[in-house]
Amino acid sequence: MSAANALRAARDAGIGLHVDGVDLVLEASAPPPAAVLDLLTRHKADLIVLLRGDDDGWSAEDWQAHFDERAGIAEFDGGLPRPDAETLAFKCCIVEWLNRNFERSPPGRCLACGGGDSAHDALLPHGVEPTGHVWLHSRCWPAWHAGRKADAVTALKAKGIEDRSKGT
Fold first, then answer.
1. What is the 3-state composition of the chain as percent helix, strand, coil, each rounded to the nearest 5?
2. Which residues on neighbouring strands pair with residue 24, listed in sequence order?
3. Which residues of 36-46 are buried (b: 16+ CB within 10 A; e: fewer)?
4. Cα(168)–Cα(162) distance, rounded to whole angstroms?
5. At a CB cut-off of 8 Å and minimum separation 6, what does 38 contact?
6. How far apart are CA 116 and CA 137, in angstroms?
7. Helix, strand or coil for residue 86?
8. Residue 69 contacts by C-beta under 8 Å, 6 or more apart in sequence?
9. Cα separations (Å) of 92 from 33, 73, 82, 102?
10. Which of 24, 116, 137, 148 is the most exposed place for a label (fewest CB within 10 A)?
């Protein structure tokens, strides 16, 4: 079992977790089950890393709150069944992760293949001004973008966020 699974088990048992320095702090209205405490003990170091913010500035708790908010809006305001709402919420988390973990590259070379500008396949900027651009050939963009989405799925899964309807 991973730290993300231990975090999910704690949440399912009604245990709130946060980090205070090097300590993992538990908050619960009732004594936690021994099995969950054992999981938390075994994965303490990884849980502390997981709960601290990453380069994107969000902790696992922040990502969970974003996911829950998106799923709640889709379910209650949008009228979607819960599994569909969670699938949509996961997609929203992917977009948010991509926005928070942007890449940049200098102009003149394709980030994916390393090639330069050509008459038949011009280098194009992808991105927005505040974060900068990634320069890619149009033929290189689909594979590069698929790789970035896979990175997002992996990073989110490490934070305990995943599309459970598809087993990802």
1. 50, 15, 40
2. 19
3. beebbeebeee
4. 6
5. none
6. 9
7. helix
8. none
9. 33, 12, 15, 16
10. 116
Q: Give 123-142 pLDDT, tens digit per residue.
A: 999 887 667 788 999 999 99
Could you give the CA distance from residue 9 to residue 87 in angstroms, rounded to a whole number? 20
Task: Write the pLDDT tens digit of every residue in 99-108.
Answer: 888 888 878 8
Tell me the C-alpha distance between 134 and 125, whole Å.
6
**pTM of structure:** 0.66
CA dist., res. 132 & res. 128, Å (int):
6
154 in helix, strand or coil?
Answer: helix
DSSP state of 64: H
Listed residue (166, 157, 165) closest to 63, CA to CA: 157
Question: Measured on CA atoms in the order 58, 60, 62, 66, is the torsion positive or negative?
Answer: positive
